[in-house]
Amino acid sequence: MSKKKSSLARWDKTYLWHPFTQQADWEKDDPLIIQSARGSYLTDVEGRRYLDGVSSLWVTVHGHRHPALDRAVKSQLARMAHTTFLGLTHEPAILLAKELVRIAPRGLRRVFYSDNGSTAVEVALKMAYQYGRQQTSPLRTEFLALKNSYHGDTLGSVSIGGIDLFHKAFKPLLFRARFAISPHCYRCPYRRERGGGSSRIGNAGGNISAPKPGDSRKETGCRWECLRSAEVVFQSRRGRLAAAVIEPSVQGAAGMIVMPRGYMKGFEALCRREGVPLICDEVATGFGRTGAMFAVDHEGVSPDIMCVAKSITGGYLPLAATLTTERIYQAFLGRYEEFKTFYHGHTYTANPLACAAALANLELYRTQRLLRDVGRKAGWLAQALDGLRSLPIVGDVRQIGFMAGVELVQDPGTRRPFPPAWKIGQKVCLAARERGLWLRPLGDVIVILPPLGIADGDLRRLFRGVREAILETAYSLSKEDGRLP
Ligand SMILES: Cc1ncc(COP(=O)(O)O)c(C=O)c1O
């Protein structure tokens, strides 16, 4: 290890506390210290290159150090790095809002900026609540959310979070949310256990057989029990819901759980029928990650409020936006002393450098026809991923566009997960690191989420590396007695 690396590693372990990291492990491990990045590659302080297989946590779009984005940020920097957005405005924020409204799903006409995905969701929740209070009823104090949902780490977004591992510990601090079951076909509680019989878990009617990997909803006898569960919440909490919140198309942080087609439209229809505003959290899915500009576009869903962040600046700078309809916006207008104002804002709201990066980023979507190219590459990826289903520890493969997850299980026949202490996801990612790939798993789900602009050859390399890393891990498990069935 070079002297520079060893000093940096020591200081990191002495002074830092990393997000979502068990520091006891971190302090023992050899940290990857990144010095530079270009295109789809990261380079560490010792000159080793790693293919960025998760787009630096789902944000990089055209690649690192893209000349157009570099230019846009530098040119904005020459004019102004920052000014407040409270009581002032500026060109990059105005032009970006205009562009966001142009590309947004129908009906979204107003843009409220903040700094990250969690704050975009906080804004959405507060906006929906205050809208309800001013427009319909002060009794609308609850939110409908889904099990397995992840909307960020601030306490509002944790309140509507449905992942026990992340959220349960904070329960006493949270406001009330009502949860419907997750549209998670692989672990659907209403399926029959493999081998037939009527050992269905859960209480919905219907003759449902065990879905196999790749099965469509129809083949598994699905009766939309997940949607029915949402319907029950809508009905039982009538007049109490300020909004219903979903991550459209895919529950990312829970392990790339891709929803069956039709779920979103059904969920939207319930919102409309019950008169409850629909919040779509496109923080992870927005800006082409699922192959469409926004995931709601796959089913023509029109949210009342939509949250975006992550890829908005192409992975350059922190920025987020909460978009809403003119109807919701209008409900906040009034005389000053009526206090209908939306009292929310952050110091760095609409930072001009971030807005300039976002404008340049979105311009490239147009000029490079990025989404068409993503569609082609995602098609190749789908075929390649299909080949992983037969590997010994692969339970499920889920993909939509450039968001993919490979769920590793101890026994694919029964879907039994690995014991958490085995850290199989981390092991596979370490094996991938040996092959020059940077991946970050979600538990035992291996996430493949490359920059949208990745070159064809690099995408193939990424896939090959993931496959080899899974095989190597499965092989080492099979050598240890009793670790695989
Ligand atoms: C759907 C969704 N919402 C919100 C967030 C939170 O975003 P941030 O980490 O920028 O606060 C995330 C982060 O992964 C996310 O996936």
What do you see in this structure?
The chain has 485 residues and is of the alpha/beta class. It folds into two domains: 32-62 and 369-479, Aspartate Aminotransferase, domain 1; 68-367, Aspartate Aminotransferase, domain 2, CATH 3.40.640. It contains 15 helices and 16 strands. It has helices at 3-15, 23-28, 55-58, 67-79, 91-103, 117-135, 155-159, 164-167, 225-236, 263-274, 326-330, 352-367, 370-386, 424-434, 456-479, and strands at 34-38, 41-44, 49-52, 108-114, 142-146, 177-180, 241-246, 250-251, 257-258, 278-281, 305-308, 320-325, 394-400, 403-408, 437-438, 445-448. The protein has a seven-stranded mixed beta sheet, sandwiched between helices. It has a four-stranded mixed beta sheet with strand order 1-2-3-15. Strand 8 and strand 9 (257-258) form a beta hairpin. Helix 14 packs across helix 15. The chain is globular, with a radius of gyration of 23 Å. It starts with a helix and ends in a 6-residue tail after the last helix. Bound molecules: pyridoxal-5'-phosphate. Residues 116-118, 121, 150-152, 247, 252-253, 281, 283-284, 309 line the site of pyridoxal-5'-phosphate (PLP).
